[in-house]
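S.,

Sequence below, as promised.
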Amino acid sequence: MSRIDNRWYDDLADSWWDRDGPVAALHEVNPVRGGYFLDVLGLETGEGARPRILDLGCGGGLMAEIYAGAGALTVGIDPSRQSLQAARRHQCQIANPIYLAGRGEELPFADATFDAVCAADSLEHVAQLERVLDECVRVLRPGGRFVFDTINRTFRSRLVMIWAAQNWLRLAPPHTHAYDAFIRPDELRSALERRGMRWGELRGLSFRQSALRAGWSYWRTRRLGGFRLTDDTGISYLGYAEKPR
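The prediction came back faster than expected:
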């Protein structure tokens, strides 16, 4: 497998929260995937019981604050201590997430601790995907949901995410993404079903405009023009699976 270099995230510091900074694209995509995750987890109204959510690979806390802001008891875990420091400095005022250093391959939690495990833009960055999925299922309570978004392994994703986004637009340094680490939906579904999970739904996550126009827009304005949910899973996709009771 090609080498994945996650050290870039250590250098972001408070740039995690700069909407015009190096992760500006995440600030564009997070409202869409965040809204989807909240809907899938029944948190869109912010009412009812407060579920316990694990944000896997939380980085600077961008998604963790969305879950916490909707009323969830949120724990973010990430191997980058520098990113976690930035997350703690930005603590939201509604319900502060808890941030812990750790790796997905060895989660420091008891079995059935969480009502949901959320993996936003993290599965394609791990060294041992199978081990990470083992751990995610282990810490999920029966009836809980594993929600995810990741990158498909297709020619289009190589063109857009590696050649264009990484090599041309420089949205991230070389080796932040590795094509071999991208995950086809059928592979992820099979891996989860082997662990007893019940597949729920799959949606595509796409630019609001064409990839070419989005790239041109970013080149000129540092904005991709937004994202939307579609049926096209050729580049990125998101969805969920449920642990049977």
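Helices lie at 24-40, 62-69, 81-89, 129-138, 155-168, 185-194, 211-221.

Coffee later?
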